[in-house]
Amino acid sequence: MDKPTHNMNRRSLLSMLGIAPVMPFAAAAMSVKPAKTVKLSDRMNSLPWTKQWQAASETGLFLEQLRERCSDVSAGIEECDGLLSLAVFGRDRSHGKIIVWTGTWGREASWRFMPYLPYIAARDVELVEGNDDVRDAAWALERIARTVPVNSIGVSIYISDHLLAAMSEAGFSAEHPAVRGVVNGYSTLGAAATIGRLIETGALVHNGSLMTTEALTRFRRSMAWHPDGHLVAPATALFRAFAARSWTALSEGR
Fold first, then answer.
1. Distance (Å, rounded) from C-alpha 103 to C-alpha 83?
2. Which residues of 116-134 are buried (b: 16+ CB within 10 A; e: fewer)?
3. Which H or E element spans position 206?
4. Contacts of 96 (CB under 8 A, 6+ apart)
5. Residue 191 falls inside a structural domain
6. Which of 25-34, 180-189, 214-223 has the lowest mean pLDDT?
7. What is the mean pLDDT of the chain?
8. Structure-model confidence comparison of residues 73 and 228, the more confident one
9. Least packed by Cβ within 10 Å: which of 31, 56, 111, 138?
10. How many separate domains does the chain show?
11. pTM for the full predicted model
């Protein structure tokens, strides 16, 4: 083989020797089509157990039944975008499963009717006027407390004066040991993980609220609240209930 001349470049020499040239990293990178930039996917960011949640509904489960079936209950309340949601849960004495009831009230004065028509048709939301929403929620807790102990009530640390006044009138003032301020974030995400385990193991049933199911389906773990206002309250009330219960159990060493 002739000695290569100085004019023969490296690529020609390698070709003559039958060696495929190795492209430098920069050149290789330029020859590869850049991958599409993808943010955290909705699948990873959403709650993975929402389909199982839909299948865990119990037909005919009403709030009053929790008084008969549970030794004690815990609750969570959330106000947002003209809605107020209440979530109550306890452990059924007969089969040991967690039973959950959620309900929502909507103030007509601040109601945007079109997005809520399916929930109104399903009687999943009760339309009220003035401060009837906070009174109804507080009275619901008061009626339950007549029969079974209310272990904990998770509320926002920014609870409105109207809700606080109604709860105080019902016997649950801010100083009541059961009332717990729950901050959105790690506390509520930890509660979501707890609910997920219960759902996945078949240890939880609920009343099949359409709005709550929709809220959980669209909930995004990377956001403190979802942009769709009507999807905030039911999911957050549920998470506050479980977060407050965990806090109470830890403080009592259980």
1. 10
2. beebeeeebbeebeeebbb
3. strand 204-206
4. 203
5. yes
6. 25-34
7. 79
8. 73
9. 31
10. 1
11. 0.77
Q: In which region does residue 21 sit, left (phi positive, over 0), alpha (psi from -120 to 50) or beta (all else)?
A: beta
Tell me if residue 170 falls in helix, strand or coil: coil
Residue 92, pLDDT > 60, answer yes
Whole-number pLDDT of residue 126: 87
**Residue 127, amino acid:** L
pLDDT for residue 165 is more than 50: yes
Structural domain includes residue 153: yes
| 165 domain residue, yes or no | yes
Token digits of residue 145: 């407390």
Q: Would residue 146 count as lying in a domain? A: yes
Token digits of residue 137 = 């929620």
Residue 249 banded pLDDT, cuts 50, 70, 90? low
Of 188, 235, 193, 220, nearest in space to 80 by CA:
235
**Cα separation, 254 vs 244, whole angstroms:** 14
Q: In this structure, are strands 150-155 and 125-128 parallel, antiparallel, or unpaired? A: unpaired
Using an 8 Å Cβ cutoff, are 193 and 161 in contact?
Answer: no
With 60 as the cut, is the pLDDT of residue 252 above it?
no
Which tokens sit at 128? 């009220």
